[in-house]
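Thread title: Can someone regenerate the structure for this chain?

I was given the following input by a collaborator and told the matching structure tokens would be attached. They weren't. Posting the sequence so someone can regenerate them.
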Amino acid sequence: MNTKVSLAGVLLKNPVMTASGTFGSGAEYGELVDLNRLGAVVTKGVANVPWPGNPTPRVAETAGGMLNAIGLQNPGIDLFCKRDIPFLKQFDTKIVVNVCGRTTEDYLEVVERLADEPVDLLEINISCPNVKEGGIAFGQDPKAVEAITRAVKAKAKQPVIMKLSPNVTDITVMAKAAEAGGADILSLINTLTGMKIDVRTRKFVLANKTGGLSGPAVKPVALRMVYQAAHAVSCPVIGMGGIATAEDAIEFLLAGASAVSVGTANFYNPYATVEIAEGIENYMRENGIEDVNELIGAVKE
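Best answer:
Regenerated them for you:
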């Protein structure tokens, strides 16, 4: 039985990855989860300099999910290279570094710094606000998506994953723009913009007012967008958004995803990733499927 999938020539032992920002850079879960069992570990977003993140409170529970406005708090690329990459290299899993920035130059600085580091893939978080363009996220303008993708591809030594924002009118336009810019792989969805108000205090629950909605509540939207994107481009797609069980993951594979990322589920079930990997294997055995790639895009029209 083959569970291996290829993402732009990088072979994962199975299609299960962690979603950026929900697994730290592996060390936080290392005592609970055997990282050798995962196809890849996707790190928390890394910037060219340390980011303090947003003021608190910055996490809130919602029906069927959670809101977060962490603000991509991270220690910066120097500490990441010194501390986190050596930790992850101890394990037989692929390393995907999520890269964030406020300007194109910020992204490129991190991408160039990673050129000689032993990491397998770069995931570019284009849901960051572009400070030079009045704060609109890079990922909400197709011209900006294509431009940042092209700029990153010109400097990157590793294959590039462009992580798409769902906060757009038509996800296929963004997917095609990333592909036109040279993206090797797409990942989606990032979080949906949401809000919560405390009726007792009549104040916003999050200091930032808005936050990113994730968890089971977003899964139907994510599945639809992954299906649309996978059918709009020829490069592989990594699906994510509310995946908590093997059945959820298999839905994304059937919709056209070549791999899946597990995010919010890690917070309430630290074993979710390994359980999902095992669940996919069980499903394959029960249904006489020899190769996991047979499931990719196999939904019946």
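The first strand starts at residue 5 and ends at 7.
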